[in-house]
Amino acid sequence: MENRWLDVGLNMLSSAEKESMVTQLFHSPEWEVAVRRVRDKSPATFDCWFAGVQFDGIGEDSTVVLRARDEFTRDWVRDHFQPALVEELESQLHHPVTVHWVIDISLDRPVAAAQPPQPVVPKPLHVVAHEPAPVAEQPPAEPPTSVRRALALAGVNPKNTFENFVVGPSNQLAFAAAVAASGGSGRRYNPLFLCGATGLGKTHLVHAIAHRIRRDNPSARIVYGSADSFTNEFITALTERRMDEFRARYHGCDALLIDDLQSLAGKTQTQEEFFTVFNALHAQDKQIVLATDKYPQQLDRMEQRLVSRFTWGLVADVQTPELETRVAIVRKKAQLENVYLPDDVAVLLAQTVQSNVRELEGMLIRLVAKSSLMNVPLDLDFARNELAIALPNRPQVASMDRILDAVCNHFHIKPADIVSHARHRSVARARHIAMYLCRQRLKCSFPEIGRAFANRDHTTVMSAVRKVEALRDADPETRAHLDAIERRLCSAD
After folding, report:
1. pTM
2. What is the distance between the alpha carbons of residues 23 and 62, in angstroms, rounded to a whole number?
3. Range of the structural domain that residue 476 is part of
4. What is the structure's pLDDT at 306?
5. Cis peptide leading into residue 96 (ω within 30°)
């Protein structure tokens, strides 16, 4: 209330009177001395946090009034800086000091102005000849824009862009969310949590987000890396006593992109630091993108408070691509490599390598390289021979028809019943188990399984698979059925 009447009173004064009044109200030599002494202990961290704090004066009852941008900033400053500030003030005023906090998103006079990080300029390299001639010393030039961008996006593959990503039913949600997270059309979710098995395109999407943000905002501070790199940086900062630089880097970025998040499992101290970084960025509405091979609730040895924050935004999973998408991926890769690839070879590759896009692209590179080196045409016969050589120990995977036959024989029902829309309990149970086995053994996508079962919606397949997964662990009868069908399939293989 006092601040509101103060604002009204100030608005009634002239500019000169207002400036004089503000100077008298908010100028405190004791406060300035205390700030200077506390800041000297940790300048980078102090400036990072006090850019969101404003000093509103010291009352007659020795109450220091501080205004914070949000609750998180208030809590962090109160825990880490307030005790030192109070101690410094009490040593000057010679009586107890209390602190009163106010939350206000708009700050007119922050204690510390947010300073952008200064670019690191390399030292000039001088080459000395046998007879050195005097050379005028030139000031070091600022690195070119392209160099600064390359340094800022270190570790990001330049080919991993949205334009080069093949979209299909298995990844369209993740793709749309990634485009929105990079500043494109659609609602932006924060954080964006991408999950899925290895080699399905999560890293490609994370890199594409970095490229799009940099394209639209060249001055944006983007921090990209794996959870392992975050851990290594944190350990190095602790060892070399450079936590100020570490926190300034992560707390001051505009976008944080972390891959392979599951690597944080069991690293308690690193998780605590990541928790602080996450909260600081989320409070500033800075984009956070996380990628891992598991859903948040399935992350092992991860603090529950972190897991709950991972679900604040959108959890988008990347599924195994269906056959048509795999064919499109092979063709796109061949186009990027400027290689002619016959359609029948593309289909053969997509049919042979089903579960991993990275492996699919690697096999294409192998075929192209060997065809070029041996000067042999890349046709269907060549591809078949090379795939047989490259994948000699790959087990013969049961086809969808064989899984259906095994399930029907086990439950003594007809194949036509299992793909029908009949809802009898025995038929529905067999259908759910068949869907589950197709997912587990063939790594088929949910839409692909749905099409095989009378064009059922992919959400129906997802529900069936999750139901069987739950019963497998809790119901001995279901587990016995699965074991018997698995033995039947293994003997057939």
Report:
1. 0.56
2. 18
3. 400-492
4. 94
5. no
